[in-house]
C-alpha cells in the first residue's frame, strides 16, 4: 500500500492493456489498472465519492464502472444514445451528466432514471463541469458558447429558469472549462481555439480578465489557491499565469518574449489535459505525444515522465482512495442500468430506491466494534460511561424538542395577534 496523499489517474486512446491506470507520481510506479472498458474518451474519466471509477468509451455508446479496488468492471452495461463526448459526476455522487453529440442527458445514479435531456447547443458538447457544491453545472462545446445551468430546475424539467445565462465571447470552439471553489461565488475559467483564456464571475457571468496568447489553446488548470493559471496549447507548451499581479485592463495580449519566462517545455505535440496537486507543488500534463509528465511548479523541471501507448486523453490528481489497496473489501456498485426514455414526474413519484439500513439502536451500534475477547474490565467501565452519556444526550434532545415546540406555538400566537 502506498502512503501517497495523491495519486494520478491517466488514460489513452489505445487501451491495449488497460482502459485507465493509477500511478504513484513520486516513483512513476503503476499502482492499479482498470481493464476491459475500451479506450477512454477526453473529459470522460470520473470518480464517484472516491469509491468507483467511471469512464466513457471513445467509440461506443456506453459507460463503464469499476469498484476502485477491482481491475474488472461491473457486468452491467450502461448504454447511451451515442458515444459520450463528456462525462461529469456531481460531488455527492447522485447525478451523472453525459454528453452525446450536441445534447446531454442528466441521469440519477441511484435509480438509473433519465431525469432530463437537453438539446441547447448547436455544436458538439465536449465539456461538462459541476460546481463544488453540486447546485449548478456548466456545458460548453464547438458552438463557441458556455452555458450555466441550475441542476434542481433541470431535474424538475422546468424550462423557465433552469438555464441561468450563456457566454458567447469566443469566436472559435471552447476547448476546456474550469470551475473554482466556492459554489456560485467561484471563478469560471475557459480557454478556446481562438487563443484566448477568460476568467468570469460565475454568479453573474461578468468578465474579469481576458488573456490572449499567440497560439491556439487546448486545456487549462488552476491551483487550489486560485493564484496561478496553467494553460496548455496546441504546440505542446504549458504556460503559467500569475493571477496575483492584476493588470490595469481586462484584456491582456501576451507576447512571445513575455511567455518565455513561465513556460514548461517537454511535450512535442498538443497538450490534452492538466491537473495541479493539492499542495500546488506539482503539475501533471498529458499530451498527444503519448506521454504524461510530472512537473515541479516552482522550477518548471520534469520530475517524472510516464509513457503511454497512444495519445493521452485524461490525466488528473485524486486523493488516494483508502479502499483502493484493500482487495478484501467488497464495494457493491448500486448503479442500475440507465433508462432510455426521460422519466415523467409521475414515474419519479412512484420510484422506489432501496438503501441499506441498520436495524439497531444507537446504543447497540456504538458497541458493535468491540468483540467479546476485547471486552476487558476497563472496557466494561467505558461501556457503562458511554451508556450514561447516551442517556444524557437523549434527555437533552427531548428538552430541546420541548423548547422548540413552545417557541413555535408562541410564534403562531404572535402572528395571529398581528393579523387581528
From TrEMBL:
PROSITE patterns on file: WD_REPEATS_2 (PS50082), WD_REPEATS_REGION (PS50294)
InterPro entries: Quinoprotein_ADH-like_sf (IPR011047), WD40/YVTN_repeat-like_dom_sf (IPR015943), WD40_rpt (IPR001680), WDR18/Ipi3/RID3 (IPR045227)
Keyword set includes Coiled coil: yes
Superkingdom per UniProt: Eukaryota
Keyword Electron transport part of the UniProt annotation: no
WD repeat ranges per the UniProt record: 118-151, 264-305
UniProt keyword terms in alphabetical order: Coiled coil, Repeat, WD repeat
GO annotation, cellular component aspect: nuclear pre-replicative complex; rixosome complex
Biological process terms in GO annotation: DNA-templated DNA replication; rRNA processing
Protein name stated in the entry: WD repeat-containing protein 18
Amino acid at each position: 500500500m502506498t502512503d501517497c496523499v495523491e495519486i494520478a489517474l491517466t488514460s489513452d486512446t489505445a487501451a491495449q492493456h488497460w482502459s485507465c491506470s493509477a500511478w504513484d507520481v513520486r516513483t512513476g510506479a503503476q499502482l492499479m489498472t482498470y481493464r476491459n472498458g475500451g479506450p477512454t474518451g477526453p473529459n470522460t474519466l470520473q470518480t464517484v465519492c472516491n469509491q468507483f471509477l467511471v469512464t466513457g468509451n471513445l467509440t461506443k455508446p456506453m459507460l463503464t464502472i469499476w469498484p476502485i479496488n477491482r481491475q474488472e468492471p461491473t457486468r452491467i452495461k450502461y448504454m447511451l444514445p451515442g458515444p459520450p463526448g463528456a462525462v461529469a459526476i456531481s460531488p455527492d455522487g447522485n447525478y451523472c451528466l453525459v454528453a452525446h453529440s450536441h445534447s446531454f442527458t442528466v441521469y440519477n445514479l441511484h435509480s438509473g432514471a433519465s431525469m432530463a435531456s437537453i438539446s441547447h447547443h448547436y455544436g458538439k458538447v465536449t465539456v461538462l463541469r459541476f460546481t463544488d457544491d453540486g447546485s449548478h453545472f456548466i456545458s460548453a462545446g464547438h458552438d463557441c458558447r458556455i452555458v450555466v445551468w441550475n441542476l434542481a430546475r433541470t431535474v424538475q424539467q422546468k424550462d423557465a429558469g433552469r438555464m441561468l445565462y450563456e457566454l458567447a465571447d469566443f469566436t472559435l470552439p471552447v476547448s476546456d472549462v474550469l470551475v473554482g471553489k466556492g459554489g456560485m461565488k467561484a471563478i469560471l475559467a475557459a480557454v478556446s481555439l481562438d487563443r484566448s483564456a477568460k476568467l468570469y464571475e460565475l454568479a453573474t457571468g461578468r468578465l474579469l480578465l481576458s488573456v490572449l496568447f499567440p497560439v491556439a489553446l487546448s486545456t487549462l488548470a488552476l491551483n487550489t489557491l486560485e493564484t496561478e493559471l496553467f494553460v496548455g496549447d496546441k504546440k505542446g507548451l504549458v504556460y503559467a499565469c500569475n493571477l496575483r499581479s492584476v493588470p490595469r485592463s481586462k484584456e491582456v495580449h501576451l507576447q512571445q518574449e513575455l511567455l518565455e519566462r513561465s513556460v514548461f517545455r517537454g511535450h512535442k505535440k498538443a497538450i490534452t489535459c492538466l491537473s495541479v496537486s493539492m499542495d500546488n507543488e506539482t503539475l501533471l500534463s498529458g499530451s498527444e505525444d503519448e506521454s504524461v509528465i510530472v512537473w515541479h511548479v516552482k522550477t518548471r523541471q520534469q520530475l517524472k515522465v510516464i509513457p503511454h501507448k497512444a495519445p493521452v486523453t485524461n490525466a488528473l490528481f485524486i486523493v488516494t482512495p483508502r479502499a483502493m489497496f484493500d482487495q478484501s473489501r467488497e464495494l457493491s456498485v448500486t448503479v442500475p442500468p440507465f433508462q432510455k426514455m426521460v422519466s415523467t414526474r409521475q414515474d419519479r413519484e412512484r420510484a422506489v430506491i432501496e438503501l441499506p439500513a441498520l436495524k439497531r439502536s444507537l446504543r447497540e451500534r456504538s458497541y458493535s466494534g468491540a468483540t467479546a475477547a476485547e471486552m476487558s474490565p476497563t472496557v466494561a467501565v467505558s461501556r457503562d460511561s458511554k451508556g450514561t452519556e447516551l442517556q444524557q444526550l437523549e434527555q437533552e434532545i427531548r428538552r430541546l424538542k420541548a423548547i422548540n415546540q413552545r417557541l413555535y406555538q408562541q410564534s403562531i400566537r404572535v402572528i395571529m395577534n398581528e393579523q387581528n
